[in-house]
Write the structure tokens for this entry.
Amino acid sequence: MEQKKGKSLATKISLWVVLFAGLIFISAHLVFFNESRLAVQNEAINHATQVLENTTERVNTILTEVKVATDNTDWLITRHLDGPDSMFVYTRRILQNNPFLHGCAISFEPNYFKSKGLYFSAYSYNDEGRIITRQEGSEHYQYFSMDWYQLPKLLDAPCWTEPFMYTNPGESSSNMIISYCKPIKDRDSVFIGTISVDLSLEWLSSTIESVKPYPNSYSIMIGKGGTFFVHPDTTKLFYQTIFTPTLIKADTALTNLGHAMQAGEEGVRQLTVEGKDSYVLYRPLGDTGWSVGLVCPAADIFGGYFRLINSIIGIVVVGLLLMLMIFSSIISKQLEPLEELTYQAETIASGRFDEEIPESKHNDEIGKLNESFRYMQQSIIKQIDEIKHINEQKGRIQGELKIASDIQMSMLPKIFPPYPERDDVDVFGQLTPAKEVGGDLFDFFIRDEKLFFCIGDVSGKGVPASLYMVVTKALFRTIAAHEASPDKIIANLNETMARDNDSNMFVTIFVGVLDLPTGRLHYCNAGHDAPVLIGNIGAGMLPVDSNLPAGVMPDWEFSRQETLIDPGTTIFLYTDGLTEAENINHAQFEMTRLEDMAHKLQASHIFEPTKVIEAMVDAVHTFVGEADQSDDLTMLAIQYTKQQKDIVYQRSLTLTNDLKRVPRLNEFIDDVSEANGFDMATIMQINLAIEEAVVNVMNYAYPEGTKGDITIEAKSNGTEMIFIISDTGKPFDPTAKPEVDITKSAEDRAIGGLGIHLIRQIMDRINYERIDGHNILTLIKKLSK
Amino acid sequence: MEVKINTKDSVTTAQLIGRLDTPASQEISGDFDNLMQYAAGTVILDCTELEYISSSGLRLFLSLRKAAASKGGNVIVKAINKDIRSVFMMTGFLNLFEIQD
């Protein structure tokens, strides 16, 4: 795997370099090839033109020589017409002077020389260096009708014949001949015969063909009609014209070339000749009306050029391949340490950090990378150690927080229903902390037929808030154990907390004291959210005074409020974790939703504490959705469920505050207790409890010297006996007395406090209320059946 | 309510007869003041004929017990009936006094 990575990078880089180099080579060579091709072409054309010019020049020279030789002989003939035999000499002399000529004839009109008869044509010809001379005309060779005789005669001017076949007498081989013919005239300018000089076409051909600028180039010569006079393919001679191939297949280029040559033009054309791309240079041949062409195949012209290109391409390709291999190998070698690093990276990734990375011998970037890698490895080892350490610490803190959370939660009331034996009150509460530990609290307990309850929210969150919460709750319990007035409970709390409050923490708290026999609720609110009442007659907020939260300012006067709770009504208390619960859009649940919910519950007659809280929890969960809980959420619901039972027995006694009236009280109690079926021992105890209560009133509500009445009302509802002791003395709450410790030794025991202790011991329930200037103490004893 | 006090050697016996309710406690507080002088010795509170006791009565008992404790004496509560025993139990007095049948 690692091997592959190194190789592929090396190959990639090499390929890119080679590709780039290749592109540069190709571009440079394209320009070079193009330019050199033009140069080669121009050079080739120049060269061929030169050759063609030379050739035609040579041919023209010959032709001119032919003419000159003819013209030089011309005048001799006219002067020596008297001696016909001298004509043989002249023909012979022409051949001797111009060895390249094939033959020469001086021919006369029939019967021009009487002595010679009908035919006289002096003729010499060159038979491989030997000049043979003879008279040629005869019945078998009636030269008068020949082209070479007729043309000058008809044209009355010298001219060249088209090639024709001529066989010398007595020879088997024949020659293609062209002749220059000129009319001979006497002194009266009367045509008397012709002089004709023959050139062997074969010789002309070899002259023309002997010049080959390129190995496969060849020369052609066409006559006026386009017939081939010279062509390397002898089968084409005389039988085919330059236009013959166009009969089989139309070829405009060839046709145009033919026409141009016929018209005696001079030039160069590129066209396909016999299937080969060729350059054809053409040029007229003197005044003969013939045209010479030089056909040069492009392959020949550019042969060297193509060879050059091929060699260059070959060199470039081989060079690039070598470059690719060398680069690839060099880069591979250079990248080898990277493979090692890759292996090390995978080792680290797999969680093994202790494998040592060797030091690099390189001084370049890869060497530096290696060093960085070594440093990184060491750094990671260090970091991981730190993270481990932090995690251990975090785990320990988490564990401790969990324990703290458990402790905190265990401090809250958690047994529901808390008072299954009671029919006058039902309570349900729950606290959901946002963090492990929170600053919310709630608590409740019943003392002397009063339900003391509180709900609070400590400022801040986390551990500091939780510590403060614990303190608050403990203080609430301690203070409420002997203080039944909620404003005083909070004032007490406030004094303790505001003192030495270095951390400036405070708690918003609502404290309520619900008098269970009467449904009277005393409450004090220290900056907390107003509770909501949900009952048969409606739903709404409980009006609360605006007091400072507890712990803010010592000596703050907390105001007490009171209201009467109808049986069936539920007091719903909560912390701002409910009203300020946020959904993912950061909208809050708010008071309006809570009130809506309260009205819905009211409309459905749902007042049971568990159901009320369940409905609220559902509502807030639905609202919050996926969002995280941002604050502690605490709810407490208290339903006052007192059912007024029918009174089946009722008696009362009013006494003055005189201790001497106690025996009368005892009589009354004896009567009432006996009437309600209590046994003797219980009657004695009830007597003791009531006496203690009444004596307390006489001693404390009515200070010495004051007069007043004490009314003792005894009634039964069939299940319990209720004694209500009321007076109009000064406020006196016996339930607020601290409990005596009956385990102390005689020396340490206080003398007082035994009365209220006995009342509590004897009676099942005790309750004190101060209503409309009356101290009202209610003592309840269950009937014994 | 009647209190009969007999002293023989270092042992003083106080016979409590009747109901020791709150007014009775006030009535006999003088008797208990007398008893205090014997608190260095042994004081026996004979409750055979005591029918009832309230917290003020208990306070008298406790005061005597405190005086005895400070003087090195001893207070014995004798023959309390079932009802009074239950009151003693409720108030922890069973542990404060030596109880004799």
